[in-house]
Amino acid sequence: MQQELENLCRRCGSCCYEKFILDGGLVLITDVPCRHLNLDDNKCNIYENRMEGNERCLSIKAAKEAGILPADCPYVAGDPEYKPAIFLKDHPEYYEMLREELDELYFNDA
Ligand code: SF4
Ligand code: SF4
C-alpha cells in the first residue's frame, strides 16, 4: 500500500525546494533546493531517514494539507478542493516583493 502510494510520485523534485508561505496561505516554491536533494536525479539522498534529517520534510499527507504540492503533482492533480503551490520563478511580481526576505533566509551565510 505504501509502495503503491509512493509509486505515484514522478520524481519531479518540485516539493523538495524551499517554500515561502504568503499571508493567506498561498505557498510559493522557490528555486532553492533542499540540501538533501540530489539534483541529478531529483531523489532524496536521505530518503529512509528524511524526517530525522530534515525537520521540515513532510509526508505526502502533511504536504497535501500544507498546500506545498504543485497543481500537476499526481497526489493532488484534479482535486477541486486543493489549492496548489505555485512556482516563484513564474511570478516575478512576488519575487521582487520577497527578494530581501529570500536572500536573508537562504543566501545569508553570515
Ligand atoms: S511534487 Fe509530487 S510528483 Fe513531484 S516529487 Fe513531489 S510528490 Fe513527487
Ligand atoms: S529531506 Fe525531504 S525535502 Fe529534502 S530532499 Fe529529502 S524528501 Fe525532499
Which helices and strands occur, and which strands form pairs?
Blueprint (H helix, E strand, L loop, with lengths): L1 H6 L9 E5 L5 E7 L3 E2 L4 E2 L5 H4 L6 H7 L19 E2 L4 H15 L4
One iron/sulfur cluster (SF4) binds next to helix 2.
Number of helices: 4
Determine the fraction of residues in helical runs and give it as a percent range.
25-40%
Rg over CA atoms, rounded to whole Å, is: 14 Å
Instruction: Quote the beta fraction.
Output: 15-25%
Would you report the number of β strands? 5
Instruction: Give the helix/strand class.
Output: alpha+beta
Our count of domains comes out at 1
Main pleated-sheet profile: 3 strands, mixed
Task: Tell me the distance between the termini.
Answer: 45 Å
Secondary-structure element series: HEEEEHHEH
Query: What are the distinct ligands in this entry?
Result: iron/sulfur cluster
What sort of overall outline do the alpha carbons produce when their principal axes are compared?
globular
Mean pLDDT: 90
Uncertain segments: none
Give the strand line-up of the largest sheet. Answer: 1-2-5
Short description, anyone?
The chain is α+β, with helices and mostly antiparallel strands.
List descriptors:
about 110 residues, alpha+beta, 3-stranded mixed sheet, 5 strands, binds iron/sulfur cluster
